[in-house]
């Protein structure tokens, strides 16, 4: 019989607020994103990114970028963290913190990641950080205004496509 070892460990962050995070929680979230950055697999770009995602029930999921020799298959840190959460049954989020090695700039999520975040709502917070822990906060809708989301698929259309088969 094969031994199956589950190494995934559910992490929590203590946070009282529903929407607004305490300063302490923001700091912890950024620290977790910096820790996650250390796992980055980025032999091609040499650009490390880490993300730490906080669910509405204060569970924490982290992710790093994972590149591939077939370049277009690489996955960003943010998408990795979100996919980990969703695959464990969590899809309501308070905030995500992102870390990179850029000295003088806040890391800015790519367009694909903004759309990926938007799938799970427009009004949650994204903390863009620098390695020294400085950050700026933006909502998903500030990062991706006039967005397309799941609700749009259900809107009235001029043509209703018939079901095939
Ligand atoms: N990257 C992320 O992980 N998140 C972003 O939002 C920006 C870019 C990664 C993708 C790739 O592995 C590396 O950074 C360089 O683009």
What is the CA-atom radius of gyration, in angstroms? Answer: 17 Å
Let me know the CATH homologous superfamily.
Answer: Cytidine Deaminase, domain 2
Number of domains: 1
Largest sheet: 6 strands, mixed
Summarize the helix and strand pattern as letters: EHEEHEHEEH
Distance between the ends:
43 Å
The outline comes out as globular
Short synopsis of the structure:
The protein has helices at 23-37, 77-87, 111-118, 140-143; strands spanning 11-12, 49-55, 59-64, 93-100, 125-129, 135-139. It has a six-stranded mixed β-sheet. 23% of the residues lie in helices and 20% in strands.
Key attributes of the depicted protein:
single chain; 165 residues; alpha+beta; Cytidine Deaminase, domain 2; 4 helices; 23% helix; binds tetrahydrodeoxyuridine
Walk me through this protein's architecture.
By secondary structure, this protein is of the alpha+beta class. It has a single domain (3-154), classed as Cytidine Deaminase, domain 2 (3-Layer(aba) Sandwich), CATH 3.40.140.10. Helix content is 23%, strand content 20%. A six-stranded mixed beta sheet has the order 1-3-2-4-5-6. Strand 2 (49-55) and strand 3 (59-64) form a beta hairpin. It is globular. The model has no long low-confidence stretch (mean pLDDT 94). The protein binds tetrahydrodeoxyuridine (THU).
